[in-house]
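Input record (one chain):
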Amino acid sequence: MTRRPPKRHPGSLLGVRSLAGQVFVLQAVLVLLLVLAAVAALVVQARNDSTREARNRSIAVAEGFAGAPGLPAALRSDDPAARLQPLAEDVRERSGVDFLVVTDTDGIRYTHPKPDRIGKKFVGTIEPALRGEVVTEEIVGTIGPLVQAVVPVRDADGDIVGLVSAGITVENVEGTAGGQLPLLLGASAGALLLSMAGTAVVSRRLLRQTRGLGPGEMTRMYEHHDAVLHAVREGVLIAGSDGRLVLANDEARRLLDLPPDAEGRPVAALGLPAPLDGLLASGRVAVDEVHPAGERMLAVNQQPVGRYGAPAGSVATFRDTTEMRVLSERAEVAGRRLRLLYDAGTGIGTTLDMARTAEALAQAAVPRLADFVTVDLAEPVLRGEEPAGETVDMRRVAAAGIREVSPFYARGDLIRFAPSTPQAQGYGTGRAILEADLTDAPGWQAQDPERSRGIVEEGVHSLITAPLRARGIVLGLVTFWRSEKPEPFDGDDLSLAEELVARAAVAVDNARRYTRERTMAAALQRSLLPRALPEQDALDVAYRYLPAHSGVGGDWFDVIPLSGARVALVVGDVVGHGLHAAATMGRLRTAVHNFSALDLPPDEIIGHLDELVSRSDQEGEDEDGTPDDTHGMMGATCLYAIYDPASRRCVMARAGHPPPAVVRPDGTVEFPDTPVSAPLGLGAPPYESAEIELAEGSRLVLYTDGLVEDRARDIDAGLDLLARALAGADRSPEETCDAVTGAMLAERPRDDIALLVARTRALAADRTASWDVPSEPAAVSVVREEVARRLADWGLEEAAFTTELILSELVTNAIRHATGPVRVRLLRAERSLICEVFDTSSTSPHLRRAATTDEGGRGLFLVAQLSERWGTRYTGTGKIIWAEQQLPPA
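The corresponding structure, as predicted from the sequence alone:
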């Protein structure tokens, strides 16, 4: 017996077919739109990703190369292009950028992938980079659309000394979108065909299986829908157009605590919280709005219904977000702590001053971590030393708080913590300690019961003390105090305090080590500079030496008495700061004294110094020829001047040094035109000297470039300011120094300053005497008689015998061994009597000890015994043998 298929209703079958056709068309359109949207989104995203990747890579390469050690030194070298081109090309090939260009601050290229473009102007925007900003821009270059970044290069002082630009074409960072597009189109076409085939199959099954969908089938479908609605873990509430509740599933009843007969009642009568009640009654659109409902926090979404001819109303869904909110609050707390650590990392350690570093730490933690913060450093640390022992005196160097609390130790107080205190225990163990309740902390109170009681009365109830530990050494303690929040510090606060202090400890240790080096360099520098000016009769001298605020430098000065009542004035400046600069200054100063003892003219002394520095630099090179800064001398400038009070003439030479200033007796200021050569160590051509005549009472002013040049003004403006400060008559050297320093010194000088002011004296004509001596032995007696008469006129009869013996020996030697005319000059200075014998010979006599059988050879020995000092200096026509006797005070 065959089963007859059920009879189909013609209207039902027609409706099913129409529905199947609509489903088929709708699904095909949706799939097609999705495919087109996916392709468009992929193309746009690929383009954006390529541009972003090009920008990020160019910035990373440019900043990495700009921060490379040695780059500022390379930019200041004689040939930056030769040193930087191979390095830049190597980095470019490794990083995959299309070009890596290094320029000076004017945009002139030092490097480029095409060497013929080196030395030409960089194409791009560099002005923001010169202000310290990072510049990125998209341009169309010769190699196509590209993204280039320009970053500044800073030296150790933070000055911008050059620029680095890296660029890459967008084409080179194109993603895989181009390769994925064919695959996506193929997959989309397949999906479209598959969906069309699926729709056709569904339509057939619908036609074959529905057979009109009677009431029973509709009932079962509704029951299934109702079961799903009540099983989901999200509340669903449907309201009609009249504001009455149409449907609420089980989760909505639980979350909103609805009564059993809620359906059919007005939503406003369900007793819901006011904000939520108003939202449901309004029927407006809501997306993830959070509303309280009892102890819960509900995320509410609401959409109106009734479009396309359906009944009007609204559907609202509810999610319980209470636990998520707790997690969100914890994440917010963690975010605030990370922000605190980040801010502390950028704000602490920006200076090498320990007190300012400690102050930055205290201010960073208030009030985000604690209400009060105190920082105590071990006493040896403040001197740059490492603390030794388990107990040590602490000096309070910083404190910050939300208000003033008088019971705390004040800044500058010396503290020795009792062994029972958390501070002493933390210092001994090197670990942070939490004291949750200060009212019940006998160990902490034992430090100072009265002070502890006052702190508690101020509302402080909890503390964390964390040791400043760096490289295994505890440098001090940081104590965090809480008063405003009633809850004590907890374990999370302890961990945060430890992390914060650990980061600050490195900065404090760097400042300590810098302080130690600066103290050592300052001590070395003080030992190398003149402690007092030597006595001499030619000049009244005053000086000022002012070290830089940032570190010890290599500026120096000297006043060196020479033969013939002359005086040498020296001012020099060594490049850089620190121990090496101070050591180089000491070596140069010693060399100047040694060369001055040879009585050489200024240009020759400068030449010898240049040779010394050049030779030292060669000895300070490594095996591969690169300079070794720890051994060779550093570059330096120098000015050397010799003043002769007998002739009132000053001879000077300078190597890369600022020009001297001369203040005439009437108060006018001028800068003599003196030849300037390259700084010492550059192997310059022979140095030149200049000779000027100075009226008695003139002031000769020598200085280093730190006085007239800084970031705020160039050297021309500095020289104008110096001239205005020097102008004026009737000033002593001391008054001149005060006027110059008061007018020109910055509050925190960045470079050392040496200032030397010398007011000239003249040796009166009646204090000198000279005689031409014939080249015959009989003339010696005549000279002795003339000298005796002149000494009697000067009131120096007691020195006549000694002077006659000295001149007899010197004149006899000149007549016997020299050729040409001989001349004798006698100089009467304030403190000394000087005998000089001029001849045309370039042969210098030598002191020797004569044997008992020798008939001669004792003359110079006798001169050396009778005089305070003696020597030889050369002139353009011969030499001068001189002897100086010390005169008793008048």
